């Protein structure tokens, strides 16, 4: 639980590297065990300093479980490249993977609105200034949780290497091998049918390259 068992040499302990991975992604999988059964839910998240913010409906079963104190782990994964080796057996991927463990804290009514604004500002910076704030009804229907990033509560694994050489793979030296980088980009915004003709707001314009 607190150390890498497979390829421990790929473990990274620098907190800045963890923050870099968390800040580069938007989606993780929140997992816990409740009543002896596993629960795993893909969720949007946002890092806010030394904590990870999560939110969802007050009717969401998994969130209610972790809010009640069930130990949980958030897993975040980024695929960086296909590693094309001289053989299919040696082919792999370069990736970054992190797990952050611990009990989640349910945020108070006073903290909820601010945390939801912080969450939105991570995903679409500047958007909260362009739209109305959440209503009381919307806040009451939302469960906001915080997962502290404790020094002993996370693991980070980074695979970042060239493929095996033909000699290492016992393969034909004339077979091509190398890396195929993977990247995710935000494309030009597409207006909703009822927003055609309206100017694209600055917060959305800044998202596209």
From TrEMBL:
Keyword flag Cytoplasm:
no
Statement: the UniProt record of this protein carries the keyword Metal-binding: no
**Molecular-function GO terms, alphabetical:** oxidoreductase activity
Pfam families to which the protein is assigned, alphabetical: Pyridox_ox_2
Query: What keywords were assigned to this record?
Result: Oxidoreductase
List membrane-spanning regions: none
What EC number(s) is this enzyme filed under? 1.-.-.-
Reading the lineage from the top rank, the first entry is Bacteria
Q: Which of the seven top EC classes does this enzyme belong to? A: oxidoreductase
The protein in question is named Pyridoxamine 5'-phosphate oxidase family protein
Q: Which organism is it from?
A: Nocardioides hankookensis
